[in-house]
Design brief:
Blueprint: E1 3-8, E2 17-23, E3 34-36, H1 48-59, E4 64-73, H2 80-96, E5 101-106, H3 109-119, E6 125-127, H4 134-142, E7 145-149, H5 152-155, H6 157-165, E8 171-173, H7 182-192, H8 197-213
Parallel strand pairs: 1-2, 2-3, 3-4, 4-5, 5-6, 6-7, 7-8
Helix pairs in contact: 1-2, 7-8
């Protein structure tokens, strides 16, 4: 495996790419490596119990590598207390089945950190699509939350500066729903880090093994 894509909505047919495809309780194809979770955007109060059972069932599938994406979003109309309740239920499943947690977070980083302190999880937490400032990045890392970067690092100069400062042992890369290939994101990441592509691949692969395999 040369390239690891921690969070994507499209499976790569390239044999050199290991993709973890994001799925939902309503998804039907679980033949490829996947993560599954109840996204805060799609919370339906009447279906939560049924969907939690579906998620728990799929977490036991050998192709399941993570729980997610799940998390908190203050910009949507869904009741925030309900979001927190469902997020905590999914944290419990992440711990029970020893699956890393892939987190969606919009303007709720402090709440995520507080919940992490409260539950003190053993599984890795990965905040996907990170595109904020260095201060927030350091705060998340200090609280044991890993950061996954996507295509925003290709053009966002401020984010490139943040990425440059962070230890490579704390980051992962992803395509999410972008038009970019994971290879392009790796290439840009290696340029920002002033490292060879090979060295970056080795480092990210080590992160992957530590988080998802060991």
């Amino acid at each position: 495996m040369d390239f690891f894509d921690v969070h994507t909505h499209t499976f790569s047919s390239d044999k050199k790419v290991f993709s973890i495809v994001n799925t939902y309780p309503s998804s039907s194809n679980f033949t490829q490596p996947f993560s599954i979770g109840i996204h805060p955007w799609f919370l339906n109060k009447d279906k939560i119990e049924e969907e939690i059972v579906l998620v728990e069932n799929k977490l036991q599938n050998r192709n399941c590598f993570a729980l997610g994406e799940c998390g908190l979003d203050t910009l949507i109309a869904v009741d925030f207390e309900l979001q927190k309740e469902v997020f905590k239920k999914q944290i419990q499943l992440s711990e029970k089945y020893k699956k890393p947690l892939i987190i969606h977070c919009v303007k709720a980083h402090q709440e995520i950190i507080e919940i992490k302190k409260e539950v003190n999880p053993k599984q890795a937490w990965i905040l996907h699509g990170f595109n904020k400032n260095k201060q927030l990045a350091e705060s998340l890392l200090k609280n044991g939350i890993l950061l996954s970067f996507g295509s925003a690092i290709i053009k966002n100069k401020k984010l490139q500066e943040v990425f440059l400062e962070l230890p490579i042992s704390s980051v992962l890369l992803e395509t999410d729903a972008s038009e970019f290939e994971i290879q392009e994101i790796y290439q840009k990441a290696s340029e920002i880090k002033n490292s060879s592509l090979t060295d970056l691949q080795v480092a990210i692969n080590q992160n992957f093994k530590r988080i998802f395999i060991e």
